[in-house]
Amino acid sequence: MVFFSVVIPTYNRSFETNRALLSVAKQVKPKDYPGVFFDCWVIDDGSKPAYVINEHLRGEFNRRKIPLHHQKMRKNFGVAKARNQGIFLSSGSWVAFLDSDDEWHATKLLEQYRYILANPEYPIVQTEEIWFRKNQRVNPTKAHEKKIGNLFKLSLSRCLITPSSVVLKRDLLEKEKYYFDENFPACEDYELWLRITLKERVGLIRKKLLVRYGGRRDQLSSRHPVMDRFRLKALLKMKRSLNRERTHALEKKWLDEVFYKKIAIVMQGAWKRKRFLFYFYYWWIKRRFR
């Protein structure tokens, strides 16, 4: 039985993906685990040229007896579909995501394994992290401080769950259909975390077991500079979902506070940039859902 399936989506990142993969190969395994502690799935989202796992890395995985799988997508579909593909192909009891430009501390999975055994009430568990931006270490702001427990209210304003740090219980993913929405070219993780934190509590290991590298031109935040558009799309999707229910009255109130605040910011930006079609679209949305 495989405990963790590690899913790494990659697109036109050879050096970074090799670095991420090496950090997976170096993961420490519990000595008493009876089966395959983890396997690894690299999903190439249509890279040109196609990503090739070098022989040194394959040798590391083979030497450590870690199953390594490589799936090539026929074209660039986006990170949401690539992660979903990894979920569907893999079979681990828990799914661990790692972005191709990040890397793990050697004890990351081991620490999460121990935490899961000691705290079975959490179907999603993340860790603290170290940030590098343009090769300079930076400290997360107070607003990005990670919390434990019920995170829905806090998650409305900003993304407080890092895909590369998180592991999710497969039973929860499959039962609740918690897959990434492939209609989101960006903020697909923010949208998923909203759905999950509405109903589930999030566990946290207060150790910095992930290194994140930011400031690259090929990152989604650079390719899609007005990220609030996609956050608004996620909030609107959640608003429509909650409007169909008679429960979650308090959550609806929290959602509305953030939704109308963000829509005002996006409308102001659209007007300033003379993007009047966007402005009136959000004006209509605002009136439609009052």
Describe this structure in words.
The structure is a single chain. Helix content is 42%, strand content 20%. The chain has 11 helices and 9 strands. Strands 1, 2, 3, 4, 5, 6, 7, 8 and 9 form a 9-stranded mixed sheet that branches.
Write the layout of secondary structure elements.
Elements: E1 2-10, H1 14-25, E2 36-44, H2 55-63, E3 68-72, H3 79-89, E4 94-97, E5 103-104, H4 108-118, E6 124-133, E7 136-138, H5 152-157, E8 167-169, H6 170-176, H7 188-197, E9 202-214, H8 220-223, H9 228-243, H10 249-272, H11 276-288
Parallel strand pairs: 1-2, 1-4, 2-3, 6-9
Antiparallel strand pairs: 4-8, 5-9, 6-7, 6-8
Helix pairs in contact: 7-9, 9-10, 10-11
SS-derived structural category: alpha/beta
Q: N-to-C SSE series?
A: EHEHEHEEHEEHEHHEHHHH
Give a count of the beta strands, DSSP E runs of length 2 or more. 9
Radius of gyration: 20 Å
Low confidence ranges: none
How much helical structure, as a percent, in the residues? 40-55%
Global shape: globular
Mean of pLDDT: 92
What's the N-to-C terminus distance? 50 Å
Major β-sheet profile: 9 strands, mixed
Strand content: 15-25%
